[in-house]
């Protein structure tokens, strides 16, 4: 018998299903659009993707109002395509990687940009900047069988009705099969794994009261409202 009970494994709703998709791991791809890499002061890296992770405790479902994140004065939005895996893959080629995709969703990779920059300046991990409560926002999953192939679909984000981010999915530097194939060289990937595939240019700060709305052609939209911070500033 355990000393205490842990929270249940988080589920993401799946369109057309009465059961949710349980999440065991969250991988995120960094600087996967050329213009975003440049706005972060880096040249695009075409050699291979790189990653950071978030714990499932960071998940937040669309439609929520969340507190302004603690420990930051520079909370940023990052609109992303999220991939949900439905089959096990290890050292996969592109075909096996593509076949492992179960579903897609709209996601928001919320970022404490000042804490991320602190880590970069000191050559330390990005955890405080990226992995915190409500930092991995997600809309319901849409199964790949119901969708056309990825490519020219638009991805966009508005804040209070003003467009902040807008691009096409075929502008990803490393597309979905490439990311899964590469990542599977380092992990035994499988059902329960989410991959946030990177954000277009236009990331920026949000404030208390802001309403974020994002969409990708063919997928359920995502929405998040930024509430007041908890406790003392």
Automatic annotation (TrEMBL):
It holds the Pfam family FAA_hydrolase. InterPro entries: Fumarylacetoacetase-like_C, Fumarylacetoacetase_C_sf. The keyword Metal-binding applies. The keyword Metal-binding applies. This is Fumarylacetoacetate hydrolase family protein. SUPFAM superfamilies: FAH. Residues 26-224 form the Fumarylacetoacetase-like C-terminal domain. Keywords: Hydrolase, Metal-binding. GO terms for molecular function: acetylpyruvate hydrolase activity; metal ion binding.
């Amino acid at each position: 018998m355990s000393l205490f009970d842990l929270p249940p494994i988080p589920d993401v709703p799946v369109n057309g299903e009465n059961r949710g998709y349980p999440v065991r791991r969250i991988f995120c791809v960094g600087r996967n659009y050329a213009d975003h890499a440049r706005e972060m002061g880096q040249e695009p890296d075409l050699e291979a993707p790189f990653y950071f992770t978030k714990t499932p405790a960071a998940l937040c479902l669309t439609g929520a109002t969340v507190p302004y994140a603690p420990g930051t004065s520079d909370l940023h939005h990052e609109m992303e395509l999220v991939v949900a895996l439905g089959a096990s893959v290890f050292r996969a080629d592109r075909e096996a990687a593509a076949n492992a995709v179960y579903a897609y969703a709209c996601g928001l990779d919320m970022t404490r940009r000042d804490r991320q920059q602190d880590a970069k300046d000191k050559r330390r991990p990005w955890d405080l900047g990226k992995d915190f409560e409500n930092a991995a926002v997600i809309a319901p999953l849409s199964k790949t069988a119901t969708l056309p192939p990825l490519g020219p679909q638009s991805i966009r984000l508005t804040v209070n009705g003003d467009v902040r981010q807008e691009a096409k999915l075929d502008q990803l530097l490393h597309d979905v099969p490439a990311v899964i194939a590469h990542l599977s060289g380092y992990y035994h990937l499988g059902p329960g794994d989410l991959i946030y595939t990177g954000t277009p240019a236009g990331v920026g700060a949000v404030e208390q009261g802001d309403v974020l709305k994002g969409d990708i052609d063919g997928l359920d939209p995502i929405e998040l409202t930024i509430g007041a911070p908890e406790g003392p500033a």
